[in-house]
Design brief:
Chain lengths: 264, 437, 185
């Protein structure tokens, strides 16, 4: 049997296995999600820094009123290009409970870069009480937990974007529960969250016009980054690893040919 | 036969503790059939994966906190703050999938080429023990990140034992260490998840010892008849394994770097909440066929029994398939049934993934909840596939042993000519004795 | 890529042999390089993580410490002694600058402001925490600190004067961010 046919078989096996895995990974589409174009897609993907900054502005000016971002610390903002001083300023704008001090009392102090993002509510009960019984989910991993199990990080961003622009007038025959809102991007099309974005909800520092489309795209990118701050790192490392492995495999193949030539 | 080592230190040690002789014997000059195909690479790949999983697991355990209040965040801390923690975790979580890919291919190779037949029955059975240990380890490892699917997967799987009459409830309580999956459960799963791979390693050693007793089977399935049929393991198979490893690692690296969470369930990025069950509870892909078998039986206890039986049947496989011809290459009918089994396992995988009340329409190429569609329900399809799965082992193989007419088998590996008129006293390999069987 | 013209049965002769050796040498070095690079993430993961590093500096208001008193703050998991020294203590430390010491150091290089002494409170012998922070605790013959484990004695500048410890108490990197606030680390 020639090496060529063996390799063919090997490739066929790998393709076959991939196909099985792909089938196994077919996601549920509880809802139709429109595929968008994002700068971070693909092998060389990168987050657009100004867009991340704008996304942070949307989060802090709109989302942060109800949604926590528990897994992020203010220091993480430095990774997306905020200066150390800017981060200190952002952190110092919030008041953090600390303690106990030497007298055994809790005390308040301005936030530090090492502090986690301050949550809008003290606990789940307070969050529910403030939102008519509905719990605004933590957004740290929203992009990852709402992604279909598809290939690529864009799925979470697609979902968030689809949800934020999905508020529509309900069809005439749709029975909307009291206090709920019609949203085409949400499973069941009923969501407790009222439309969070309206034209001009956010004042962008860079002067970009704050359309609903713009804001929802920006915050989707920000939350994708927040779900995996090491995303770009992963792609870079992957590129190096792949290049190495290809070289390694070619050399191993050449060595294999040489050695096996002795008995062919 | 002690090898002659040049290095005096090696020689000094080897004289007192013959590890080098042992290694030389078993990994260097070890005579291996010269005709092994690339399907034989998967054994060493499985060994490689075990090493990768143990190494990455040990380093992850240094960062992990097995407590219901901290487990989820400690895992996210690895992903965000620990240097290369994200890489270690992606290597480990995708490594589990890769381990199963490799082991499943390894098993199907054994099934096709009759590697389970005499004198390798025990080798095969030890392999099945390895599979069981892998499953237990993978299941408990999946619970550790303490996401929604971790928690509910643990709840559902431990509840399987409640199907046992009388003792069921007590066993489940014992497994949990409480009245639901909770902190004691997480703690013991962590402990066992760390322990079992070492047990696994021990069983792998037995697997290799059993392998080296008679040597590898080979694509034509006949025994090696002398030095003309074999080549030393090193350098021939070491270099071939290296090449295979390279190809495999490219595949593995693709998942780690470019689709690291595709094989997992996104719901596991939501912290465990004992008060709310996710809409669909689905195990990881490598358990899907067994999950489909479980679901296809409407009775709770019988379903559990069927699921375990689907693996236990592999233990008696060497006595179900009595055909003296090992390799599927010379078994024209067997081939078809074998590939149908492969296809059947794919179908079971799809069934395990899909919600049971959905409809599969092969012509529309879709699986959907649309009841108006023409098609077959996932449950019915799972039942069909389960029937074939057991049918293959319990009916097809025994009957084939009796009725199949095997093709002529070559006389030896180095002389790939057919046996007719050969002077070798071949073991029942010519077609004539087959007819009498 | 691979050479098709092979000598049968692998006789390594002449140019063939050289090329083969080169190939195997390349293969071996590439493998070694790969293995080494693969080990690095594992080793690196044991180094302090980002959240640990983020907490590696603290700010302390030393203005509250009365003269003659000392406080202990936790920094990087270790105690830091901050002593508001009296004029007498400073004088004593300066007077001993020329004394016979294991680890000679002038007092002026050990305190940015002479009245506040900032030290890592870990005995340089084997890592115990010396006594002497509270009034009631023994301070040793030199009025500084006394390590109960093996009897090392430090003076009012935190210098080792007697006992097995080889070095003076470590002065951490710190700076005054205002008149009374010290940033350690």
């Amino acid at each position: 049997m020639s090496a060529g046919s063996l390799i063919l078989k090997g490739v066929a096996a790998l393709v076959g296995v991939t196909a099985v895995l792909f089938v196994a990974a077919t996601p549920y589409h509880g809802v139709h999600v429109e595929k968008e174009d994002w700068s971070f897609q693909g092998f060389f993907g990168k987050f657009d820094r100004p867009q991340l900054h704008r996304g942070f502005e949307v989060y802090s000016q709109v989302c942060a009123a109800c949604h926590s971002l528990n897994l992020l610390s203010y220091r993480n903002l430095q990774e997306i290009g905020f200066s150390e001083d800017a981060v200190k300023e952002i952190a110092a704008a919030v008041t953090v409970m600390d303690g106990p001090d030497d007298a055994g009392d809790m005390f308040e102090r301005p936030g530090k870069p090492s502090d986690h993002f301050k949550a809008p509510f003290a606990n789940e009960q307070a969050a529910r009480a403030g939102n008519g019984g509905a719990l605004p989910p933590d957004l740290s991993l929203i992009a990852r937990s709402r992604a279909g199990a598809g290939f690529g990080a864009h799925e979470g961003a697609d979902y968030i974007h689809g949800l934020l622009v999905g508020y529509k007038e309900p069809p005439a025959d749709f029975k909307l529960t009291e206090g709920m809102n019609y949203n085409e991007g949400f499973v069941g099309h009923q969501i407790a969250m009222p439309p969070p974005l309206a034209e001009g909800s956010v004042t962008y520092a860079d002067g970009t016009p704050a359309t609903v489309e713009q804001m929802s795209r920006d915050v989707s990118v920000f939350l994708t980054w927040a779900g995996e701050p090491n995303y770009e790192n992963r792609l870079h490392t992957g590129l190096k690893a792949m290049l190495f492995l290809i070289v390694f495999t070619l050399i191993a193949y050449a060595a294999k040919r040489k050695i096996w030539a002795r008995i062919h | 036969m002690a090898a002659n080592f040049k290095n005096p230190v090696v020689r000094w040690i080897d004289h007192r503790l013959p590890v080098f002789t042992f290694l030389h014997h078993e990994a260097n000059e070890y005579p291996t059939p010269k005709n092994l195909s690339y399907w034989w690479n998967f054994g060493s790949l499985a060994g490689f994966m075990l090493m990768v999983m143990m190494a990455s697991g040990i380093f992850l355990a240094m960062q992990y906190t097995p407590h219901v209040d901290y487990a989820f965040n400690s895992v996210e801390r690895m992903m965000r703050d620990v240097n290369y923690g994200w890489l270690l975790r992606y290597i480990h979580m995708n490594g589990a999938s890769m381990f199963f890919v490799v082991v499943y291919v390894h098993m199907f190779r054994g099934l096709y080429f009759g590697s389970y037949k005499a004198p390798r029955e025990l080798l095969w059975q030890i392999g099945v023990v390895i599979l069981l240990l892998m499953m237990a380890t993978a299941f408990m490892g999946y619970v550790l990140p303490w996401g929604q699917m971790s928690f509910w997967g643990a709840t559902v799987i431990t509840n399987l034992f409640s199907a046992l009459p009388v003792v069921g409830e007590h066993i489940v309580t014992l497994l949990w260490g409480g009245f639901s999956v909770d902190n004691p459960t997480l703690n013991r799963f962590f402990s066992l998840h760390y322990l079992l791979p070492f047990v696994l390693l021990g069983v792998v050693v037995l697997h290799v010892v059993a392998l080296h007793r008679f040597g590898s089977n080979n694509p034509i399935g006949i025994d090696t008849k002398g030095p003309q049929d074999t080549i030393p393991f090193h350098p021939y198979y070491t270099v071939k394994d290296m090449f295979g490893l390279g190809v495999f690692m490219i595949f593995y690296a693709y998942w780690v770097f470019y689709a690291p969470v595709t094989l997992g369930d996104p719901v596991n990025f939501v912290p465990a909440n004992p008060l709310s069950t996710p809409e669909h509870i689905v195990p990881e892909w490598y358990f899907l066929p067994f999950y489909a078998i479980l679901r296809s039986i409407p009775d709770k206890l019988l379903g559990v029994i069927a699921m375990f039986a689907s693996i236990l049947v592999l233990f008696v496989l060497p006595w179900l398939d009595r055909s003296p011809v090992r390799s599927g290459r010379y078994r024209p009918a067997f081939k078809w049934f074998f590939w149908m089994l492969v296809f059947d396992c794919v179908i079971l995988t799809i069934c395990g993934k899909s919600p049971p009340d959905w409809i599969w329409s092969p012509f529309a190429f879709s699986i959907s909840p649309d009841v108006g569609q023409v098609g077959i329900s996932i449950i019915a399809m799972g039942q069909l596939a389960t029937t074939y799965y057991f049918g293959y082992f319990l009916v097809v193989l025994p009957l084939l042993s009796i009725f199949e007419r095997a093709l002529p088998v070559p006389l030896s590996i180095s002389r790939p000519v057919l046996g007719a008129g050969g002077s070798h006293a071949a073991i029942a390999q010519s077609p004539k004795p087959m007819e009498k069987l | 890529m691979a050479d098709h013209a092979q000598t049968p049965h692998g006789q390594a002769t002449g140019e063939q042999g050289t090329r083969r050796d080169f190939l195997f040498l390349t293969a071996a070095s590439v493998t070694a390089f790969g293995a080494a690079s693969a080990v690095w993430p594992f080793v690196s993961s044991m180094n302090p993580s980002k959240d640990v590093l983020a907490l590696s500096s603290i700010e302390v208001d030393v203005g509250q410490v009365a003269e003659g008193q000392a406080i202990t703050v936790k920094w990087r998991g270790k105690p830091v002694f901050i002593r508001h020294r009296t004029a007498a203590e400073i004088a004593e430390a300066v007077k001993d600058d020329g004394a016979d010491m294991k680890d000679p150091q002038k007092d002026e290089v050990r305190a940015q402001k002479p009245e506040f002494l900032v030290l890592v409170g870990v005995c340089t012998h084997l890592g115990c925490i010396p006594l002497g922070q509270k009034d009631a605790e023994p301070k040793g013959q030199f009025g500084g600190w006394y390590c109960p484990c093996h009897g090392s004695m430090y003076d009012t500048s935190g210098r080792i004067r007697k006992g097995p410890a080889p070095l003076n108490l470590e002065v951490p990197a710190y700076q005054y961010v205002s008149d009374t606030v010290v940033k350690i680390g």
